[in-house]
Design goal:
mainly alpha, 0% strand
Length: 175
């Protein structure tokens, strides 16, 4: 439920940027976009830190549902034509914005992120990229679960007392 609400809120923030009647500017488009999605970032941070460090089967099952949901949401934001058109307008008029170095960097990173995420693709290629992104997300989730399972199942068994004494001596050298 937290993810659904956070995505809902982020969609409303994106809609308010898109539906802004004012001409696109750095402040009403790039800054607004940069400030959007705070709840989603916080919820994601907590959840994925938990699944990456102290997980269980229930959390992993949730991750298998949540990760594709977030990937889909990110694709919808980054491939949104109306939003990209506003970003591109700011990009095309950046010389009129009187931006400082940090603002220029944020604008450049934002614009390039849209480009790299498929904003300029036609609809059929966007759909194909969305499918690839969904598959990658599923595979990453599975891979991470496998790595974590291997890490958690690892045991160091020392059956030779001589090896144990070497380990104790090694540990004492650090104390």
């Amino acid at each position: 439920p937290a993810f659904k609400e956070a995505i809902n809120q982020h969609n409303k923030e994106i809609d308010s940027i898109i539906n802004n009647k004012e001409k696109p500017t750095f402040k009403n488009t790039i800054v607004a976009l940069d400030l959007s999605g705070n709840l989603l970032n916080r919820v994601s941070g907590v959840f994925f830190n938990m699944t990456g460090s102290n997980t269980n089967k229930d959390m992993q099952a949730l991750e298998e549902v949540i990760s594709p949901m977030i990937a889909k949401h990110n694709d919808e934001v980054m491939m949104n034509e109306q939003l990209f058109n506003r970003v591109k307008t700011v990009w095309d008029n950046k010389s009129k914005e009187n931006l400082n170095e940090e603002q220029e960097m944020l604008l450049t990173k934002t614009y390039k992120k849209f480009l790299r995420s498929g904003a300029l693709l036609d609809n059929s290629h966007k759909d194909a990229l969305k499918k690839v992104n969904e598959e990658i997300t599923k595979l990453e989730t599975k891979y991470n679960a496998n790595v974590l399972a291997q890490t958690k199942s690892y045991q160091l068994v020392i059956s030779n007392k001589k090896d144990l004494s070497k380990l104790i001596a090694y540990e004492r050298s650090f104390c």
